[in-house]
Design brief:
The chain is mainly alpha-helical. The radius of gyration is 12 Å and the shape is elongated.
């Protein structure tokens, strides 16, 4: 498997996990936690965009 694919796979896994945490933080009204998670979310989202991943269907946060 090419190294770029492994990086993209890990980023996708992290993206899914961060979204789950963000949704939980939002539900619990944990604003500080949500803000910290959002920074990580945006970083991973940027990496996936550069990698050419279409996030339209998998982005549950839509920010």
């Amino acid at each position: 498997m090419p190294p770029g694919i492994e990086v993209t796979k890990q980023a996708l896994d992290d993206f899914k996990k961060i979204q789950e945490y963000m949704l939980s933080a939002r539900k619990e009204n944990a604003t500080e936690t949500y803000a910290k998670l959002k920074k990580e979310y945006l970083t991973i989202k940027a990496l996936l965009n550069v990698s050419g991943v279409n996030l339209t269907d998998i982005d549950e946060i839509k920010e």
